[in-house]
Amino acid sequence: PKQAFGYGEVAPKGAPGFEGVQLKPPETIGDTIKYISKGMTTIPTKKEIIEAIGYPGQKHSAGGISTVGRIYYGPGRYDYGRPPMPAGWFANWFYGFWEFGHIMFVADRWIAMRYLRHFLGTAVCFFPMWLQ
To answer: Whole-prediction pTM value?
Structure first.
């Protein structure tokens, strides 16, 4: 399957969101440790950094509100097809919060880097005016 946009492979080895522990919210302490250690402590890939910074002619995707796509998408990703729901009530209760954090900091962390880019760019442009 073709990815939404970007360059390179659809699901390269080591891409975020494809690990077994990242397919659904962790429900045990062991799964939580594996989830955090694998998903939130890995260095962003070159592809994620380039897509976060942006480049002339960068393609966009038919997304929801902000029209951003997924640069890594295909069979094996947690939201490909019908996402498996957690079994426990605690994980189900907080699924929305997990989903937001998972998208922003694990699976599609280039979107969080893009938000950081906008925040820092605005701060740099605002600071000289604030000094006056």
So the answer is: 0.75
